[in-house]
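Q: Sequence in, structure out?
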Amino acid sequence: SIFSSHLFFGYQILEWAWAEEPFKVVWAVRNDGVLLSLTFLKEQEFIGWAHSITQGNFKSVCTVVELTDDSGEVDAVYTVVERVVNGVTVKYIERFAERAFPNGVVDAWTVDAALQYNGSPSTTFSGAEHLAGLTCTGLADGQPIANFVMPTNGSVTLPAAASKVSVGLGFTCDLQ
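A: Exactly. Output:
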Protein backbone atom coordinates (compact mmCIF):
# COMPACT_ATOMS: atom_id res chain seq x y z
CA SER A 1 0.00 0.00 0.00
CA ILE A 2 3.04 2.30 0.16
CA PHE A 3 2.86 2.97 -3.59
CA SER A 4 -0.91 3.55 -3.59
CA SER A 5 -1.70 4.91 -0.16
CA HIS A 6 -4.58 6.99 -1.60
CA LEU A 7 -6.51 3.73 -2.04
CA PHE A 8 -6.24 2.98 1.69
CA PHE A 9 -6.11 6.31 3.55
CA GLY A 10 -9.36 6.83 5.46
CA TYR A 11 -10.72 3.35 4.65
CA GLN A 12 -10.79 -0.04 6.32
CA ILE A 13 -10.12 -3.32 4.55
CA LEU A 14 -12.96 -5.70 5.43
CA GLU A 15 -11.67 -8.84 3.68
CA TRP A 16 -8.75 -10.11 1.64
CA ALA A 17 -8.49 -13.04 -0.78
CA TRP A 18 -5.54 -14.48 -2.72
CA ALA A 19 -6.02 -15.82 -6.26
CA GLU A 20 -2.74 -17.41 -7.27
CA GLU A 21 -3.78 -18.97 -10.57
CA PRO A 22 -3.72 -17.80 -13.22
CA PHE A 23 -2.71 -14.17 -12.54
CA LYS A 24 -1.49 -13.89 -8.91
CA VAL A 25 -3.91 -11.25 -7.63
CA VAL A 26 -4.80 -10.11 -4.10
CA TRP A 27 -8.42 -8.94 -3.82
CA ALA A 28 -9.52 -6.65 -0.98
CA VAL A 29 -12.96 -5.26 -0.10
CA ARG A 30 -12.96 -1.75 1.31
CA ASN A 31 -15.58 -0.52 3.78
CA ASP A 32 -17.05 1.83 1.14
CA GLY A 33 -17.92 -1.06 -1.20
CA VAL A 34 -14.95 -0.67 -3.55
CA LEU A 35 -12.98 -3.78 -4.50
CA LEU A 36 -9.20 -3.36 -4.72
CA SER A 37 -6.84 -5.67 -6.58
CA LEU A 38 -3.07 -6.03 -6.35
CA THR A 39 -1.19 -7.69 -9.17
CA PHE A 40 2.23 -8.92 -8.11
CA LEU A 41 4.74 -10.44 -10.54
CA LYS A 42 7.98 -10.98 -8.61
CA GLU A 43 10.01 -12.16 -11.60
CA GLN A 44 9.17 -8.95 -13.47
CA GLU A 45 9.38 -6.71 -10.38
CA PHE A 46 5.83 -5.53 -11.11
CA ILE A 47 3.39 -4.34 -8.45
CA GLY A 48 0.15 -2.64 -9.43
CA TRP A 49 -3.00 -1.70 -7.51
CA ALA A 50 -6.36 -1.12 -9.15
CA HIS A 51 -9.88 -0.50 -7.92
CA SER A 52 -13.16 -1.92 -9.17
CA ILE A 53 -16.54 -0.31 -8.77
CA THR A 54 -19.92 -1.73 -9.71
CA GLN A 55 -23.56 -0.69 -9.61
CA GLY A 56 -23.76 -1.40 -5.90
CA ASN A 57 -21.24 -2.23 -3.19
CA PHE A 58 -18.86 -5.13 -2.80
CA LYS A 59 -19.42 -6.67 0.63
CA SER A 60 -17.25 -9.80 0.61
CA VAL A 61 -14.64 -11.65 -1.48
CA CYS A 62 -13.20 -15.16 -1.50
CA THR A 63 -11.42 -17.54 -3.86
CA VAL A 64 -12.19 -21.19 -4.56
CA VAL A 65 -9.94 -23.58 -6.47
CA GLU A 66 -11.92 -24.87 -9.46
CA LEU A 67 -11.27 -26.84 -12.63
CA THR A 68 -12.22 -25.18 -15.93
CA ASP A 69 -12.42 -26.53 -19.46
CA ASP A 70 -10.24 -23.76 -20.88
CA SER A 71 -7.70 -22.88 -18.20
CA GLY A 72 -7.22 -26.03 -16.12
CA GLU A 73 -7.08 -25.18 -12.41
CA VAL A 74 -7.95 -21.62 -11.40
CA ASP A 75 -8.59 -19.72 -8.20
CA ALA A 76 -12.12 -18.52 -9.00
CA VAL A 77 -13.02 -15.18 -7.42
CA TYR A 78 -16.45 -14.90 -5.78
CA THR A 79 -17.91 -11.70 -4.37
CA VAL A 80 -21.01 -10.70 -2.48
CA VAL A 81 -22.43 -7.56 -4.05
CA GLU A 82 -25.23 -5.48 -2.57
CA ARG A 83 -27.41 -3.83 -5.22
CA VAL A 84 -30.73 -1.98 -5.33
CA VAL A 85 -32.97 -3.73 -7.87
CA ASN A 86 -36.48 -2.39 -8.50
CA GLY A 87 -36.25 -0.41 -5.26
CA VAL A 88 -35.32 -3.48 -3.18
CA THR A 89 -31.87 -3.97 -1.63
CA VAL A 90 -30.53 -7.42 -2.52
CA LYS A 91 -27.24 -9.28 -2.13
CA TYR A 92 -25.93 -11.43 -4.96
CA ILE A 93 -23.10 -13.93 -4.97
CA GLU A 94 -21.22 -13.34 -8.21
CA ARG A 95 -18.29 -15.21 -9.76
CA PHE A 96 -15.73 -13.34 -11.83
CA ALA A 97 -15.53 -14.77 -15.34
CA GLU A 98 -12.27 -16.17 -16.62
CA ARG A 99 -10.15 -13.78 -18.65
CA ALA A 100 -9.38 -16.42 -21.27
CA PHE A 101 -11.20 -15.85 -24.55
CA PRO A 102 -10.30 -18.76 -26.86
CA ASN A 103 -12.63 -17.46 -29.62
CA GLY A 104 -11.86 -13.77 -29.11
CA VAL A 105 -14.40 -11.19 -28.06
CA VAL A 106 -17.29 -13.59 -28.75
CA ASP A 107 -16.34 -15.42 -25.53
CA ALA A 108 -15.88 -12.28 -23.41
CA TRP A 109 -17.96 -11.63 -20.30
CA THR A 110 -17.79 -7.84 -20.23
CA VAL A 111 -20.58 -7.06 -17.76
CA ASP A 112 -21.37 -7.52 -14.06
CA ALA A 113 -24.20 -9.70 -12.68
CA ALA A 114 -24.32 -11.35 -16.09
CA LEU A 115 -26.13 -14.23 -17.67
CA GLN A 116 -24.86 -15.89 -20.82
CA TYR A 117 -26.68 -17.84 -23.51
CA ASN A 118 -24.85 -20.24 -25.83
CA GLY A 119 -27.01 -22.16 -28.29
CA SER A 120 -29.07 -21.95 -31.45
CA PRO A 121 -29.45 -18.41 -32.85
CA SER A 122 -32.34 -16.58 -31.22
CA THR A 123 -33.62 -13.04 -30.73
CA THR A 124 -35.46 -13.44 -27.40
CA PHE A 125 -33.79 -14.32 -24.10
CA SER A 126 -35.26 -14.62 -20.61
CA GLY A 127 -34.20 -15.30 -17.03
CA ALA A 128 -32.70 -11.94 -16.08
CA GLU A 129 -35.30 -10.90 -13.49
CA HIS A 130 -32.41 -10.19 -11.10
CA LEU A 131 -31.60 -7.15 -13.29
CA ALA A 132 -35.18 -5.78 -13.46
CA GLY A 133 -35.29 -2.01 -13.77
CA LEU A 134 -31.52 -1.66 -14.22
CA THR A 135 -29.70 -0.33 -17.28
CA CYS A 136 -28.08 -3.29 -19.01
CA THR A 137 -25.79 -3.97 -21.96
CA GLY A 138 -23.70 -6.84 -23.24
CA LEU A 139 -22.48 -8.68 -26.30
CA ALA A 140 -24.33 -10.66 -28.96
CA ASP A 141 -21.93 -12.78 -31.04
CA GLY A 142 -19.20 -10.32 -30.10
CA GLN A 143 -21.18 -7.21 -31.08
CA PRO A 144 -22.14 -4.62 -28.43
CA ILE A 145 -25.78 -4.50 -27.30
CA ALA A 146 -27.04 -0.93 -26.91
CA ASN A 147 -27.97 0.10 -23.36
CA PHE A 148 -31.52 -0.82 -22.36
CA VAL A 149 -33.56 -1.03 -19.15
CA MET A 150 -34.29 -4.65 -18.21
CA PRO A 151 -38.05 -5.24 -17.98
CA THR A 152 -39.41 -6.70 -14.74
CA ASN A 153 -40.06 -10.03 -16.49
CA GLY A 154 -36.31 -10.36 -17.23
CA SER A 155 -36.78 -10.88 -20.99
CA VAL A 156 -34.95 -9.05 -23.75
CA THR A 157 -35.44 -9.13 -27.51
CA LEU A 158 -32.48 -8.32 -29.76
CA PRO A 159 -32.87 -6.84 -33.26
CA ALA A 160 -30.87 -9.72 -34.80
CA ALA A 161 -30.53 -13.39 -33.87
CA ALA A 162 -27.37 -14.39 -32.00
CA SER A 163 -26.02 -17.70 -30.70
CA LYS A 164 -23.75 -16.37 -27.90
CA VAL A 165 -25.22 -13.58 -25.80
CA SER A 166 -24.02 -12.05 -22.51
CA VAL A 167 -26.25 -9.51 -20.76
CA GLY A 168 -25.61 -7.66 -17.50
CA LEU A 169 -24.58 -4.39 -15.91
CA GLY A 170 -22.07 -2.33 -17.85
CA PHE A 171 -18.93 -0.86 -16.36
CA THR A 172 -16.11 1.36 -17.55
CA CYS A 173 -12.49 0.21 -17.64
CA ASP A 174 -9.93 2.99 -17.21
CA LEU A 175 -6.20 2.46 -17.65
CA GLN A 176 -3.66 5.06 -16.57
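The two ends are 18 Å apart (CA to CA).
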